[in-house]
Design brief:
The chain has about 475 residues and is α+β, with helices and mostly antiparallel strands. It has 2 domains: about 15-240, Glutamine Phosphoribosylpyrophosphate, subunit 1, domain 1 (4-Layer Sandwich), CATH 3.60.20.10; about 265-440, 3-Layer(aba) Sandwich (Rossmann fold). It has 18 helices and 23 strands. The strands form 6 sheets. A 7-stranded antiparallel beta sheet has the order 3-2-4-1-10-9-11. Strands 5-6-7-8-12-13 form a 6-stranded antiparallel beta sheet. It has a 4-stranded parallel beta sheet with strand order 17-20-21-22, sandwiched between helices. Strand 20, helix 13 (about 365-375) and strand 21 form a beta-alpha-beta unit. It is elongated and about 70 Å long. About 50% of the residues are buried. Bound molecules: adenosine monophosphate (AMP). Adenosine monophosphate binds next to helix 13.
Length: about 475
């Protein structure tokens, strides 16, 4: 299958500013706060009202953007993008923002999400003579905008987006305005804030906190927000028949200090998931420990409900970059040890409950259980997972492997327990999960129930069968 669909996962963070003399600097800070959403590369594009300026590289935000580079980004408006590391790579050419010249001027795009009909659109555009500079699905949107016959850029964007299907939270930068759009189901988060009279737009509100911006509201599903010298204007460009907010943002992806999907605190959700999990599957134990960092709030909720002792029995090394190189003549395989190490004093001869957010392939859990038993000296290891079994791959922007690689798609819980060698294993029930989330009908839970809210185009069904097989 082509790389566009299978190797490129647009699981990213985006940030935009309009009307601030330090626009590029604010975007830099915003991207820094959103680093968890993508670590492969980052870019910032600014406009000084006439000219566009672009700086992008592979690597982490703080390493890429030196003072010198930020100075090369003048103007009072800018957008930025953090790109998630991918299996297929793609390198610098796929790092956003992507910038294009077209009949009405220049336009830059930053995209979080994943288009499910990009491959077909790309084929059609290429047959028609289009030349693509990247393998990113986001470039398809630029081509559609460039080919539209509308004489108003907003109409062009709306027309382009009526052709695409999938998940997209988008930022566009034009010479003198910032535009934000969210897909009609609102799969990925996107919020509007204000600082020093300037508007800011971010994937998550934790980015507002860092720059002292006030969180105003979310960009609504199907809404286009246009920010220019007239202020903020809202246009409904796409009909929102149903919402499909990504539940996995709460479980794993978003930062706990963010408020997403209409002011819901991620940390509170995770703690409640943990409480619910304890209601469903409490077991006699001496200590509850999280798999840091994603398991921490849930483990606290679990321990609180179960009136059990909570502690950090696993310590995470936060300084592992993508660049860590295992010695060539490796005496030992580092595996998960490079990232996590047990605190023996807390675990020795104890009955331990370990809380993690999810099991994907099962490899991490297996190594953690082994480590807690063998290095930590635990007597019993009870694994508690704060989400239902992951049975379906995500096609809307979360980087999950194929269905065949998801251990829960072909194994029952008891088989997984045996595989990870835990004494007991329990997942949060889907009913339990839905009992915690306000208006659960507004969420996409496809990774847990195969109920995909965005239908695949006819010509993709065969491919999907292969993925689902
Ligand atoms: P696995 O070893 O494949 O079962 O992976 C499970 C671990 O990966 C858990 O500790 C999760 O916190 C983490 N995880 C879950 N989803 C993702 C994702 N989309 N990207 C990176 N890590 C993830």
């Amino acid at each position: 299958m082509k790389s566009l669909f299978h190797n490129i996962h647009e699981e990213c963070g985006i940030f935009g500013v309009y009307g601030h003399p330090e626009a590029a600097n604010l975007v830099y800070l915003g991207l820094y706060a959103l680093q968890h959403r993508g670590q492969e590369g980052a870019g910032i594009c600014s406009s000084d009202g006439a000219q566009f300026h672009l700086e992008k590289s592979i690597g982490l935000v703080a390493d890429i953007f030196t003072e010198k580079r930020i100075k090369r980004l003048p103007g009072s408006m800018a957008i930025g993008h953090n790109r998630y590391s991918t299996a297929g790579g793609g390198g610098l050419k796929n790092v956003q923002p992507l910038v294009a010249n077209y009949a009405l001027g220049t336009i830059a795009i930053a995209h979080n999400g994943n288009l499910i009909n990009a491959e077909r659109l790309k084929d059609e555009l290429e047959t028609d003579g289009a030349i693509f500079q990247s393998t990113s699905d986001s470039e398809v949107i630029l081509h559609l905008i460039a080919r539209s016959k509308e004489d108003n850029p907003h109409y062009r964007i709306a027309e382009a987006l009526r052709s695409v299907s999938g998940a997209y939270s988008l930022l566009f930068l034009r010479e003198s305005e910032l535009i934000a759009v969210r897909d009609p189901m609102g799969v990925r988060p996107l919020s509007i804030g204000q600082v020093d009279g300037a508007y800011v737009i971010a994937s998550e509100t934790c980015a507002f906190d860092l720059i002292g911006a006030e969180y105003l509201r979310d960009v609504e599903p199907g809404e286009m927000v246009i920010i220019n010298h007239n202020g903020l204007q809202s246009v409904r460009i796409l009909q929102s028949i149903r919402k499909a907010f990504c539940v996995f943002e709460f479980i794993y992806f978003a930062r706990p200090d963010s408020y997403i999907f209409n002011h819901i605190c991620v940390n509170t959700m995770r703690k409640e998931f943990g409480r619910q999990l304890a209601k469903e599957s409490l077991v006699d134990a001496d200590i509850v420990i999280p798999v840091p960092d994603s398991g921490v709030p849930a483990a606290i909720g679990f321990a609180e409900h179960g009136k059990l002792h909570f502690d950090f029995g696993l310590i995470r090394n936060h300084y592992i970059g993508r660049t860590f190189i295992e010695p060539k003549q490796s005496i030992r395989h580092f595996g998960v040890k490079i990232k996590l190490n047990p605190v023996r004093d807390l675990l020795k001869d104890k009955k331990v409950i370990v809380v993690d957010d999810s099991i994907v392939r099962g490899t991490t859990s297996k190594k953690i259980v082994k480590m807690i038993r063998e290095v930590g000296g635990a007597k019993e290891v009870h694994m508690r997972i704060c989400s239902p079994p992951t049975v379906g791959p995500c096609f809307y922007g979360i980087d999950t492997p194929t269905r065949q690689e998801l251990i829960a798609s072909s194994h029952i819980t008891e088989e997984i327990r045996k595989y990870i060698t835990a004494d007991t294993l329990s997942y949060l029930s889907i009913e339990g999960l839905k009992s915690i989330i306000p208006n659960p009908e507004n969420y996409c839970t496809a990774c847990f129930d195969n109920n995909y809210p965005i239908q695949f185009p006819e010509d993709r069904l065969e491919q999907m069968e292969l993925v689902f097989a």
